[in-house]
Amino acid sequence: MPSKNTERHSHSSSRFLSDFILGSQDGLVNVLGIILGVSAATSDIRIIFVAALAALGAESVSMGAVAYTSTLARRRYYLGELKREKKEMQEVPKTERKEIINILKGWGYKGRALKEMTSHIVSNPKAMLEFMMSFELSLSPVGESQPLRSFTTVLLSTIFGSVIPLLPFLFFTHNILWGAIASVIISGIFLFIIGYYEAKYTIGSLWRSGMQLLIIGLAAGLVGYLIGHFVGAVPL
Fold first, then answer.
1. Shortest CA distance to 60 belongs to which of 169, 127, 159?
2. Listed range (27-36, 115-124, 186-195, 204-213) with the worst mean pLDDT
3. Spans of all domains in the chain
4. DSSP characters over 127-178
5. Which strand (E) or helix (H) includes residue 223?
6. pTM: predicted TM-score of the whole model, two decimal places
7. pLDDT band at 205 (very low <50, low <70, confident <90, very high)
């Protein structure tokens, strides 16, 4: 049986992976779309850099803030349900016992084994509380430091993802077309790697996951390019 430290480490790693993918994918896709859109409308490299860096700053702070507030909301919800469950254990213990029995029956327990399992859980208030939170409410604990960790991870990963499509323009400052082409290629490679990495540590086809993320990113980039192309062609 895995220890609690192992389970916490696994949960923390899963949360980190989710936050990293969220930030890096969002940053890369958004900045790629903006870069292609602006580069289709102008050949001024300064405007491209200003637009990309402005998007990088705004997107990274926004994504980090959303990660913080959403994780904080999950923690508050968990603590609220925890308090409610403790109250029900004290005020309606028979109802709570019936809920445990129903869960165990769903797992296939019956007869003497069902009674023994129920008695073991009910006799330990801490075990009973965690059992109800996990299997009745399907809630996982959210640590006090998790909102800040999510904010930091998403913020930094968004910056990381946002920089990727911008890098080629450092080498193609006098050729916007080649810079845009290189940006699409490099962004596509990184999107595929992110999708591949996600599937490697979760469930799913490695190549399919990589291709899905690649297609989503390039589709967003294409939308940005088309908007920039047609808007740039409209005389003001």
1. 159
2. 204-213
3. 17-231
4. HHHHHIIIIIS------TTHHHHHHHHHHHHHHHHHHGGGGGGGT-TT-HHH
5. helix 206-233
6. 0.79
7. low
